[in-house]
């Protein structure tokens, strides 16, 4: 069991969030097809997908928690543990790599205080991840901070960009 | 247009005409630019008429495989009494490719209209657009446009008062390269892990939710309204001498060129005119070293191969590579080919779904061998070992991810062997791997 399993889970799917999920039911012929959308709703509300949330989604969509864990771990964008207040994804695959993306990633690690990829800064403000392509290869180096897509990041522009995310 | 650059004389803007024009994003803006005329026309046509028009245009799939679109649609069963689905592949996850993003960001209604027409052509009422999770801004823009299209009555139970039901549903992925493979995409949409499926059965027989399904790329569907508006003959006439490669193609050019961006060319344009004229050529003082013309999965080309290559399906194949998705990665003489091939292998190792042994093991072994070469710990036998591995990774798995990992390794060793040997002999100093 994960160290987070002792939490008391406050349901995500109540009120407007429940209505949002139920509005999707008629758009798909199965409940299982709502799994990715439901997990996105959890992450938007809570910042990550906890064990309690997995059980809640399982009940809502008539799936088993083990099945859901299997799906979550296939995808890179769902967090199965808490991350920093701002989640940074920077591309370092070849098209970006040849234009200096690794230096940008190193600058992000340094200026956020994260130190290493996947770690959260001691102040809880940032987590930095290297990702495999953001589909913006002509605008090196691209990165996502939370849902904000930022193009043309350079080593020099990193400190000012981070300052916008307190 | 060469977004974010102005239209270059070597371009033929059709799909990209309104890139950069935020006014084209709204329903009213799109309508005032000639939008939704094609859908209204399609609503008066039979599925056969739509399929025949697209067949006659010569349009081929723009996602990478280049399969004739009209023919693909014609594989869908008729009068089978089953629900049919259209899936639009907006996963655009092939490194080097960022063209569909501009279609979605600037002309979302072009895609919605293309999806609606495609659905009519295959007797479907529902089209799902599967968009990659990282495309936060495009996804928001697309969802807003879909909502507008419903509000305006273009979509819904009675599309434009035709009595026909047309639904377009945006479905967000969650970070997995392989979900751009069509059967993996369907599994993902169904709420499963994105593992590719064994074919047959092909999607036209048993696809999404086990029902007849067609999957088309964003650019393919966005071209369809233009074909209905201006006619198949007009589209088929957009070519430069090769009637098998008709129409325009978006080429997203990245890497070491003066003006990276998304360019729209008539198929058949000489590759060097695209790179050296439209994109402005190399950075000052640099020379061309290599081009990966169709997304990271296709063979690497040398400057000599680029020199005479025409940019269309057959032209790039004749030069030993593939047009693929049209994601063109240009590398100059500062590029460490061994390091970049290692990075590509690492990408595929990270993205392997691990169903098939040859891929699961092969992508990992290939990456670790390339990493040790770069670290200065390679063995003289490593290049033969890499080639042997590549052979065992090609044509042996459910999908082509494994082949895609082998491709740059093989073409890299064949065409840039001296760079590998420099690492192996110690003539080149080892480098640290990664961030």
Give descriptors for this structure.
heterodimer; A: 166 residues; alpha+beta; 7 helices; elongated; B: 435 residues; alpha/beta; four-stranded parallel β-sheet; four-stranded mixed β-sheet; 18 helices; globular
Can you characterise this structure?
- The complex is a heterodimer of chains A (166) and B (435).
- By secondary structure, chain A is of the alpha+beta class.
- Helix content of chain A is 38%, strand content 11%.
- Chain A has helices at residues 15-24, 35-46, 51-61, 65-72, 94-97, 101-112, 158-163; strands at residues 86-91, 126-131, 143-145, 148-150.
- The two termini of chain A are 33 Å apart.
- The mean pLDDT of chain A is 95.
- With 435 residues, chain B is of the alpha/beta class.
- Helix content of chain B is 41%, strand content 12%.
- In chain B, the strands form three sheets. In chain B, strands 3-2-1-4 form a four-stranded parallel sheet, sandwiched between helices. A four-stranded mixed sheet of chain B has the order 6-5-10-8, covered by helices on one side. A two-stranded antiparallel ribbon of chain B has the order 7-9.
- In chain B, a hairpin with a 5-residue loop joins strand 5 and strand 6.
- In chain B, helix 5 packs across helix 6 (108-121) and helix 15 (357-374) runs parallel beside helix 17.
- The longest helix of chain B is centred in the C-terminal third of the chain and has 18 residues, at 357-374.
- Chain B is globular.
- The mean pLDDT of chain B is 97.
- The chains are: A alpha+beta (166), B alpha/beta (435).
- Chains A and B meet through helix 2, helix 5 and helix 6 of A and strand 3, strand 5, strand 10 and helix 14 of B.
